[in-house]
């Protein structure tokens, strides 16, 4: 008894529930004009545990074509409580139209409850939402005692008469058909003992129950029971306590449960697997109705209330509201970002709420593009060995909206988006030319650069002779053309001219933190990076030279909603916006005339894009990085064994990237012309100003003062000007 007393007091007194951290997607904001498709809205509602129904009950929605009626549940966000509302809206051309609040507090904008996309769990894999007895619906403990332990507040831990009655029933049946355990005994069994059906264990259970009641009051024991009881399984984690069970089975807060829902949860205490309402609905319905009858007998429900409740369906959500980590690759990045500020033991046991930047609709489009495109790439045995990664960010903020770590994104494992360090090939070229264009007295977009072979001889006798991908030489070409068509020889020549160290410094300025080997081969992309690093680097090009650190977390709160950490937008100007604007122009040319133009087989031609292909030797790595007005995406395709694929950036990664871009509503890239940049009509072959209607005329940006100082005229200019004037009348 002395030993058991020490066990009970030390474990119960010092026991701290290990509550996993919960990771949420960004909340979907709905308002007049919000950008969202009807399919994406329905998918997000489902992901957040909304049920398709009448749109009146909280947590339900009704859809009729493009018309939605949504009844929200309310949610506690870091900046305050979002109340329950019922809203009606129509989706037209991927935008919210005719938005209005049907019931609830008026507001021009609402936030839906964010989907929980995962959790960070303790090693024992138990999951729970802690509840306090005073906040629990009074009907729940009353029903629990009516079914499991009617004399809970009157016994001293065990109920001898109940035990005797159960023993007699078991002896008559020749097997265990009835239990006589009190709620206290059930709690002791869960907290301290094994489930072995032995006399010694039962004796210890009885003694420890008496001791527990001796030291602690009934409400403490009951509250602990409500948080501890096992009520189901979600993959490898257990659903403990009524707080989480309410969310798991109904997608609803415990305080909002109806009597028939409470009856189902209480009925499941007897056998969570046997009465699982998703797997065994008939069995669960029969058990629930039995509990409702007990509630009627004990006066908890009137006869009419009980009859009405028995006539209701189970009302369980189609999918578990809180399931296993849905996006393991993304959660992996979240954990790494959190590791800068939090210990692992706090993440897995302190019940933190982590609000991320993940956009479920963008994530779904990214996963679909990888899953559907990869089987169509390559040939023969190579096709089955191909892998891919895709990183999507918000162009202006650097928020990571989606991340795919492999061709089977639902499975955890090697995360290629974070851990596959591969040579980036021609993705380095925009940064070579940015280094050059930052010196406008030496380089402009129309500067002639040599596409001619050459040999470098090193002091140790080694020779290096770079070649173009197609093994051709074109003599002198304008710089913008060299970038748009990804010629190797001009890029190396320009890089050597401005200096390998200068190019390496440009990469570091744009967020590359790993060491860079400062050899000439680096100018052809021999430097290895992960897709996430490439996204970080290209973020600066998309934002006109402002380095914006990628972020996955907006805010972290404790279990009660108190803010612990905020992760605001950080911006650091690392390059001259004028020079970056010139590179953006050339990257738009990549899509319109160069190596990226096949994207428009998939993407609408009206969508203005900027991007760059990347290929390494034998197609071992196929890359594409590019952006629209809203999103930046980086795609990689290759093999885990680093074998050849014969794919280029245009034939491998670009189809993955294009399929993604075609699936999401967005705006085209329309760069703002910075101060100090002017556009001029030029003849880029002759490096001279010319007239708009002259042959070979091109409208090109220049940093002020670097534009050509000579002009070339053309015959027929007046006639073409008149033709252009008439043409303009009818456009």
TrEMBL record:
GO terms for biological process: cell wall organization; peptidoglycan biosynthetic process; proteolysis; regulation of cell shape; response to antibiotic. It catalyses: [GlcNAc-(1->4)-Mur2Ac(oyl-L-Ala-gamma-D-Glu-L-Lys-D-Ala-D-Ala)](n)-di-trans,octa-cis-undecaprenyl diphosphate + beta-D-GlcNAc-(1->4)-Mur2Ac(oyl-L-Ala-gamma-D-Glu-L-Lys-D-Ala-D-Ala)-di-trans,octa-cis-undecaprenyl diphosphate = [GlcNAc-(1->4)-Mur2Ac(oyl-L-Ala-gamma-D-Glu-L-Lys-D-Ala-D-Ala)](n+1)-di-trans,octa-cis-undecaprenyl diphosphate + di-trans,octa-cis-undecaprenyl diphosphate + H(+); Preferential cleavage: (Ac)2-L-Lys-D-Ala-|-D-Ala. Also transpeptidation of peptidyl-alanyl moieties that are N-acyl substituents of D-alanine. GO terms for molecular function: penicillin binding; peptidoglycan glycosyltransferase activity; serine-type D-Ala-D-Ala carboxypeptidase activity. GO terms for cellular component: outer membrane-bounded periplasmic space; peptidoglycan-based cell wall; plasma membrane. The keyword Cell membrane applies. InterPro entries: Beta-lactam/transpept-like, Glyco_trans_51, Glycosyltr_51/Transpeptidase, Lysozyme-like_dom_sf, PBP_1b, PBP_transglycosylase, PCN-bd_Tpept, UB2H. Keywords: Antibiotic resistance, Carboxypeptidase, Cell membrane, Cell shape, Cell wall biogenesis/degradation, Glycosyltransferase, Hydrolase, Membrane, Multifunctional enzyme, Peptidoglycan synthesis, Protease, Transferase. Residues 124-295 form the Glycosyl transferase family domain. Residues 390-627 form the Penicillin-binding protein transpeptidase domain. In the N-terminal section; belongs to the glycosyltransferase 51 family. In the C-terminal section; belongs to the transpeptidase family. PANTHER family: BINDING PROTEIN TRANSPEPTIDASE, PUTATIVE-RELATED, PENICILLIN-BINDING PROTEIN 1B. This is Penicillin-binding protein 1B. It comes from Marinobacter santoriniensis NKSG1.
